[in-house]
Amino acid sequence: MASVREALRTAPLADNTPGLHLLALGEEWDVVRVPAGPGFLALARLRATEEHLGPVLYDLPSERLYYAVPIGGSGTWRDPSVRLLSAGSWLVAPSPYRADDWFGGWCELPDDSTLTDADALRRALGEQNADEPARPETTVTTEPSHGIL
Q1: Is residue 20 pLDDT above 90, yes or no?
Q2: N or C: at which end does the chain have fewer Cβ atoms within 10 angstroms?
Q3: Domain count of the chain?
């Protein structure tokens, strides 16, 4: 599997704009698109763990982060603002050496083919895996209740 960095070297230019490339998704990896606020919190949580972190792109105009994940993305995403992009989708991405005030840039771009585990990303976002049964929240009280039922 080619790394995202390698793919950027051979990807066609977006609208013949130097430094902006079109990456085809669903061939070697997918991406999970996340709003910037929760995306940056998840990035901080993932950096604080032992999880492998794959490429993460910050799209400043749209205020979104894109996490490269293995194909399939491990189920559905509960938050409607989080979306798995796969086969048939394209990602406009800057070269590894381009970062500016207009576009944003790469927060992470490993030299190898490391991808972010979709389940680890889901946990970092605070989402429950769609395949797991919902767990009700419980509260334990130590004082007896004197209310009328």
Answers
A1: no
A2: C
A3: 1
Residue 82's domain comprises 4-124
- Token output for 83: 């979306």
- Is residue 137 situated within a structural domain? no
Strand ranges (DSSP E) for the chain? Answer: 20-24, 30-35, 56-59, 64-69, 83-85, 90-94, 104-108
DSSP assignments along 35-88, one per residue: EHHHHHHHHHHHHTSS-----EEEETTTTEEEEEE-TT-SS--SSTT-EEE-TT
Q: Kindly state the average pLDDT of the residues 12-20.
A: 85
| Averaged pLDDT, 106-114 | 89
Length of the chain: 149
Domain membership of residue 86 (yes or no) is yes
Burial category of 9 from C-beta neighbours within 10 Å (exposed 0-12, middle 13-18, buried 19 and up): exposed
pTM for the structure as a whole: 0.81
Domain-located, residue 131: no
- Is 23 contained in some domain? yes
pLDDT tens track for 81-92? 999 999 999 999
For residue 58, the tally of other CB atoms under 10 A from its CB is: 21
